[in-house]
Amino acid sequence: MGRGTVQVLLLLGLLLCGPGGEGRKNWRRRGQQPAAARERSEATGQPVESFPLDFTAVEGNMDSFMAQIKSLAQSLYPCSAQNLRHELRLHRLLNSSVTCNDGSPAGYYLKESKGSRRWLLFLEGGWYCFNRENCDTRYDTMRRLMSSKEWPITKTGTGILSSQPEENPHWWNANMVFIPYCSSDVWSGASSKSEKNEYAFMGALIIQEVVKELVGKGLGNAKVLLLAGSSAGGTGVLLNVDRVAEQLEEMGYQGIQVRGLADSGWFLDNKQYRRTDCIDTITCAPTEAIRRGIRYWNGIVPERCKLQFKEGEEWNCFFGYKIYPTLRCPVFVVQWLFDEAQLTVDNVHLTGQPVQEGQWLYIQNLGRELRNTLKDVTASFAPACLSHEIITRNHWTDIQVKGTSLPRALHCWDRSLHDSNKNGKAPLKGCPIHLIDSCPWPHCNPSCPTIRDQFTGQEMNVIQFLMHMGFDVQKMAQQQGLEPSKLLGMLSSGS
User: Fold this and answer.
1) Which of 370, 316, 319 is nearest to 343 (CA)?
2) Of these residues, 230, 231, 264, 416, which one is catalytic?
3) Residue 113: φ, ψ to 5°
4) pLDDT in tens, 100-140
5) Three-state DSSP string of the chain
6) What is the structure's pLDDT at 467?
7) Is the pTM of this model over 0.85?
8) Of the listed 116, 184, 387, 388, which one is catalytic?
9) Contact indicator for 390, 445 with CB cutoff of 8 Å
10) Helices 473-480 and 484-493 meet at what angle, rounded to 10?
11) Which of 34, 132, 245, 271 could lock onto 258 through a cystine, CB 3.0 to 4.6 A?
12) Angle, alpha carbons 114-120-126 (nearest 5°)
């Protein structure tokens, strides 16, 4: 153990135990001053300097470092680690007129972090429904995505919502808010339940109401608000991030920096591999589903995007590459190049059978198309993997693009925004924020999530997976002008 680490551990020991063993009384969160220090500050008119612990310096060996911290903390003060509250607690909206699809009150889960001026609001995903028939089916089969009646009282945050520094190195100490998805409208709806409307679609209004309530719980003192979301929640971020910023400005909170983090919500309005009639959510082409949905939900889109299209074509704003250029708030886009939800709506179903050559070419082209739409996105993280959603997964720290993990890229983005606000500096060297895989096949990145055979449940490596999908090594090597053995070596290493 290095001298620096020993000093930090000793410092932590002093913070936890303090003189006389009064560990808990002397522990204070970042940004809080003890009473004596506050009085001294008020008397002299000078701020008292504080020294918060900064974990970024040991990022490369974070797991080992945090294991030592926890071990020491538990040995010095046995109750300290067990009694930390990691759960987010349910709050139903005070305004009971803003509801889920079935009229039950909408709400949010909150874990406050006293002293932190960073807030993370997460929009849950979960597809959508766009007519009475498929909404009825959704209500029968996925009721928790349309009703709050059976929501649990508490929820444990994972990934970027985790309070564990080893799982969430840069946002673990933020105020965490999880907003459950119960409006089935990609967070865009603004219509209440009535005699005419069997279901309410109030996704956009739910976000506004949550923000309004949180202002009274400390959000008004925030420095940064990160609106994040996955899948339909990721698209919801693109649709709502500017509106949240405008709402806070109108309420008199111009100093809050509002940012967006859209995970797996950057969909393409591309041509399906095999066209089918728009019968249900899965088979309906994304453009047609959204076109029907926006009318059914009374969906609203940002005014700046709406003005780019003719009346009746507001559905275009649900597609990332079309709405992104109109956004005022900075947004970080996380998107798998071979997104499973995109392939599903494109009618490419990987059912365990080797794919046909036409499907294989379609999948490769999808990756190219998606890569092209991200080229002008300032901050992006796009691994060449076959998957869906990432930021709330426990393994989100494991995925890398060009040697940089997603938490690291987000931290670099954070710093670049801070520096540009401060003095107009360019992003720091060695801290990349535009990370897109260039290899052309699904799972050609060796850090991709584990793939399992759908029938046997056994793990597959990249080569086994590609063979399983009907990948012809001999033919592909010939096309690339390589020996088959060379190509296999490149695939194994993710080159």
Assistant:
1) 370
2) 231
3) -130, 90
4) 999 999 999 999 998 899 999 999 999 999 999 999 999 99
5) CCHHHHHHHHHHHHHHHCHHHCHHHHCCCCCCCCHHHHHHHHHHCCCCCCCCCCHHHHHHHHHHHHHHHHHHHHHHCCHHHHCCCCEEEEEECCCCCCECCCCCECEEEEECCCCCCEEEEEECCCCCCCCHHHHHHHHHHCHHHCCCCCCCCEEECCHHHCCCCCCCCCCCCCEEEEECCCCCCCCCCCECCCCCCCCCECHHHHHHHHHHHHHCCCHHHCCEEEEEEECHHHHHHHHHHHHHHHHHHHCCCCCCEEEEEEECCCCCCCCCCCCCCCCCCCCCCHHHHHHHHHHHHCCCCCHHHHCCCCCCCHHHHHCHHHHHHHCCCCEEEECCCEEHHHHHHCCCCCCCCCCCHHHHHHHHHHHHHHHHHCCCCCEEEECCCEECCCCCCCCCCCCEECCEEHHHHHHHHHHHHHHHHHHCCCCCCCCCCEEECCCCCCCCCCCCCCEECCCCCCEECHHHHHHHCCCCHHHHHHHHCCCHHHHHHHHHHCC
6) 63
7) no
8) 388
9) no
10) 100
11) 245
12) 140
Q: How many CA atoms lie within 13 A of 272 on its CB side?
A: 20
Q: Residue 235's closest CA among 200, 206, 201, 264?
A: 264
Number of Cβ within a 10 Å radius of residue 269: 15
CB 293 within 8 A of CB 299: yes
Closest to 443 measured CA to CA, from 454, 434, 452: 452
Amino acid at the residue 136: D
**Residues in the chain with pLDDT < 50?**
2-60, 67, 71-83, 422-425, 494-495
Structure tokens given for 103: 């009229």
Q: What was the pLDDT predicted at 480?
A: 67
Whats the size of the chain, residue-wise? Answer: 495
Q: How many CB atoms lie within 10 A of CB 366?
A: 21
- Say if residues 115 and 31 touch (Cβ distance below 8 Å): yes
Tokens (6 digits) for 367: 């990756």
Distance CA 173, CA 113 (A): 6
C-alpha distances in Å from residue 348, one per residue of 192, 202, 235, 270, 304: 36, 32, 21, 13, 34
Measured CA to CA, the distance from residue 410 to residue 415 in angstroms comes to 9
203-215 vs 232-250: helix axis angle to the nearest 10?
50
Residue type, 98: V
Count of C-beta atoms within a 10 Å radius of residue 160: 28
| Whether residue 231 lies in the annotated active site | yes
d(CA 314, CA 304): 11
